[in-house]
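Quick illustration, no need to memorize.
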Amino acid sequence: MSDIVLSGNYIDRHSLLRVNPEALEEARADPATRFVAIWQSQCLVMETRIALLTHANIVAYKQYLPDSTLLGKLDDRNVFALALDTEDEPDFGADSQFVSLRKISSLLDAADAGLAAFAKAMVAWQYNHQHCGVCGSQNLMSEAGFVMACKDPVCGHRSFPRLDPAVIVLVHNKDRALLGRQSDWPERRFSTIAGFVEPGESLEDAIRREVEEETNIKVGDATYCASQPWPFPAALMIGFHAQGQSEDIRLNDSELIEARWVSREEIISGDIFLPTRFSIAYHLVSTWFDQYDGPSLEALNLQQPPFHSPGSTDSSK
């Protein structure tokens, strides 16, 4: 698995258009423009593709058009995220439905998944910044949705999209990998260790602290592997492999209900369930797994049940 889902050059962000109000309004009104609809953090899909709506499709929702967010250019057409704030699910026809990104990402191609993640993340950030964090006044959208500006002229504070940096690490010791399970995950579902970076920490510091807090394992050298935007709700997962320097596991906090050293044989046997294929956690496991002789992890096509138990909420980790 070489590509990280939810990332990549799936769209030209066309950022200079954000600061040109006249050109921006022309782009919104252009008949060729397409819209990615977001409702209650869910994305509109048609079968296994993100729905790219036309002006004709959104006639009933024109009131939301002025606050649509420019995502960029796709195939020479402008694409905007359209946040729909309705109580009932908007109806765009029997062949379409709003679906959570976590549920649909593994079925979408990489470009569609990235576009959906981008749109969802921007709408979520705007929703969470409706009021100024300095004076409490109402914020107004500016620069195509990439600035939330305080309407109080005295304050004038401007907020910009932010991500929460989080480390995610596959700790290995010889031919075993350290995996853990959270309480709201299905039985036998395991993943890599992850946590948010705290102020005053380097990424390596955060890895050592998180792994020891959650499993009591000491970590040595850490090697960067890849990163992935993770819009659940707004994290940037920064992935590493790291060498475990101890073996005795103890759960020091309440993050995990179980942790264990897992061998390649246990993974092959299907004794545990791995992270979903669209996650960076799966990429970290597969790159470790594939270093050894035998079939690749992807070739095994192991069963992958839903990541969370029914009724649980999206996690940032």
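The chain is about 20% helix and 30% strand.
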